[in-house]
Amino acid sequence: MPDEPGTLIVPEGSFQPEHPITGVSSSKHFSALYLHKYLLNKEVGITLKLLQIFQKYNISYEHMPSGIDDLTVIFNKESLDKITIKSLCKEIQESIKPDKLNWIDDYAIIMVVGEGMRDAATTISDIIDPITNENIPIHMINQGASQISIMIGTREANANQAVKSIYNEFFE
User: Fold this and answer.
1) Which domains does the chain have, with CATH numbers?
2) Which of the listed residues 69, 84, 134, 145 has the most CB atoms within 10 Å of its CB?
């Protein structure tokens, strides 16, 4: 937020960041639905079916990274209860028939942001290496189209250590 301590709003053209990243933080109030189906990307309308199921249950999602055979949907877990989750998963299983469907209830999102990220070719490895050196499993990585943010999914229990390891890499 612009009013928060540490916030600096500057003209985009003249700003030269001191570090590739300016911030790293985590949030632990997430759940994730992992769906695997062979050649998921070739099946026309599968995402529409999934979104229609979410609409039926009046559920919004935070993020939906996907690959050729996989899709992860990240939710604010504070807006879901166990009965809804069970019904949701059952309907997805019946409608979409995935090869694999997992509900992950202890999901955390780590956000790394910085204007200097787009100009530094090694920033992604500089972010990921300290996490893997700590033997922290990474469940998802997504770089924003603007190239100034990277979202990393991990388990809640690993989030604080992952943030510390990234912070130490760039600022210690």
Assistant:
1) 23-28+107-171 (3.30.70.260), 32-103 (3.30.2130.10)
2) 69
Q: How far apart are CA 72 and CA 20, in angstroms?
A: 28
Dihedral angle computed from the Cα positions of residues 143, 146, 147 and 152, in that order, rounded to the nearest 10 degrees: -30
Let me know how long the chain is.
Answer: 172
Provide CB contacts within 8 A for 88, sequence distance 6+: 33, 53, 54, 57, 59
Q: Which residue has the tokens 């949030």?
A: 27
> Nearest to residue 73, comparing CAs of 47, 93, 55?
47
Run of H or E residues at 44: none
Contacts of 58 (CB under 8 A, 6+ apart): none
Q: What is the identity of the amino acid at 21?
A: I
Q: Is the dihedral of CA 159, 141, 19, 1 positive or negative?
A: negative
- Taking the CB of residue 10, how many other CB atoms lie within 10 A of it? 10
pTM, full prediction: 0.79
3-state secondary structure of 85: helix
Reported as a single tens digit per residue, the pLDDT across 106-123 is 999 999 988 877 777 888
Q: What is the per-residue pLDDT across 121-153, written as a single tens digit (0 to 9) for each?
A: 888 889 999 999 999 999 989 887 778 889 999
Taking the C-alpha atoms of residue 130 and residue 93, their distance in angstroms, rounded to an integer, is 37
